[in-house]
Design a protein that fits this description.
The structure is a single chain. By secondary structure, the chain is mostly beta strands. The protein has one domain. Helices cover 0% and strands 66% of the residues.
Amino acid sequence: MPGLGQQVNDTGQAFTAGIFGAVLNKKLGDSARIFTELSVPSISRSNQNGVVISADIGGAYLFNKETQLGFRAGVGLNPNSPQNYGLLEVAQRF
């Protein structure tokens, strides 16, 4: 999932930054899946926003075609990134 984007830092300076992500996904059945992900949502110079890189694992369970329960836990891989994080989500399609 590579890309380029326009970002603005804390001082209001606009700059172009890159993004990259890679996901390995394993389907466990009709309703469940697990994944691992490497995410680099900001690739820029240190005087802009710097490089942010993290790795996480997670899973999701589909209750029906409209409702999903998911979780993810991860770690930052450099000082610019959130060091430890977790997410629990309930997604509902309308």
